[in-house]
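Morning, I've got a small favour to ask if you have a moment. It would help a lot if you went through both lines with me. I owe you a coffee for this, so here goes:
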Amino acid sequence: MKRYLYLWHRWLGIGLCLIMALWFFSGLVMLYVGYPKLTPREHLTQLPVLSPQHCCVPLAQALSASGESQAPRSIRLTTVAGEPRYVLHYGSRKVAVDARSGELLDGIGQAEALAAAHQFAGPGQLQYRGVVDEDAWTHTRSLDVDRPLHRVALDNGTLLYISSHSGEVVRDATATERAWNWVGAWLHWLYPLRGGVLDRWWTDVVIYLSLTAVLMTLLGMVVGILRWRFTRPYRSGSRSPYGGFARWHHIGGLLFGLLAVAWIFSGLMSMNPWRVFDSRVPLDTSAYQGGELGAEAFPMAPEQALQQLQAAGLAVRELHWRLVAGRGYLVGVDGSGASLLLPMDGGAPVARLPEPELLRAAQAIRPQDSLQVQVLTEHDFYYYARSEHSMLGHLERPLPILRVRFDDPARTWLHLDPYSGSPPGQLDQRQRASRWLFALLHSWDWLPLLERRPLWDGWMWLGGVGGLVICLSGTVLGWRRLRGSRGRPAARRSSVRRTSAAANDVSRPQPASRMAE
């Protein structure tokens, strides 16, 4: 049995050590440079202040122009290419309507894309790079409603991606981000496999490579413990029988093996393998709004709303339509993300919705439940902010916020944002399990570490460098094994017979080239 442990670890390591070394190296890069994205702050900063003068056709006209029979999931008034524009989301479809003329904008062309890029970037030289459906910097489902994408290059090397449906800039990728991402996220997520003949199998490739790497690492830890002398040292005086790279591999595996397993396993969990984190009975939150997002709930004209919000001191750059428990609100947002809510029943602008109104809306989701309510005034294990460049760092995490716990089959928690009236997220039992098995073990999203960044950085570097020591030394040993095996076919045929004897002969040190034995 022991012989097969050595053989499985050796040959799995020969196949995977180099890939794992790339995973650890690219993971260290991702600590500081994330995959390109357009954050809410970047989006709002480039928008001009909305003017109430000759602004907009009524919302009812914009909804009629969209050509959709159903109510939209969200409505925004923003500025694109210097002109006010309604942007309506209908599930998997995004629709834009010119807010001055009320005409549906069907198909954004090169001229419109360049005008949108000018608004975003300001004066400077622009180069139109054509239309792409997906490329190295747009592998994300969040952009599916905007595809195909116009691509425009700025004179500083930044690439802008413009939606062909709304004309908005939906992603920016600076030259620095792209340069680091070739050895960062693009490499870490095995994106070289995306976009080609292997694209349809990319998810399965990542899942099964990760699963195999977990098995290989666990076998290596078992082998490492079997070969370590805890009581009587070897004749050389060392407790490890190896020298050279094999010694680095052996001791590195004993010191950092558990961390390596945690990172590889949590990377596997990030892929949601076999849908293990999908809720079987997801909570239906549609009743939270108390009705459809239609024009009848918003009698106030956008010009009037802008005037009232500006009179309250908010330089509005975007206007959002929100429905909470059947009551309509227009939410104005400025360039910093600060907001005010304007009730449609004639009330004055408010900074936050009262707690009873939010709870009334939440109760409508499951009227039969007795809600458990918690007011979060500081971040905790399940609700916290990350650095902007990180994978989920673009998600806003305002405080205070309400956490409502339901008695549904999935034991769902719903977070309610009083500043916008929206539920920014929900967590059921399986998603909370993902928080432990993915986010905690992979990026160590633990507040005592996150709030003490030098400590968090040191921990991540310690584990990352330890993983590199294991994988790079294993890569060297694997290469030596393959090179030697090609030159000695007879020795290769007899190596299996020697493995068992070498594993039991612990009285003399072994050469470095026999690390896996």
Q: What stands out?
A: The longest strand covers residues 83-90. The CA atoms of residues 218 and 225 lie 11 Å apart.
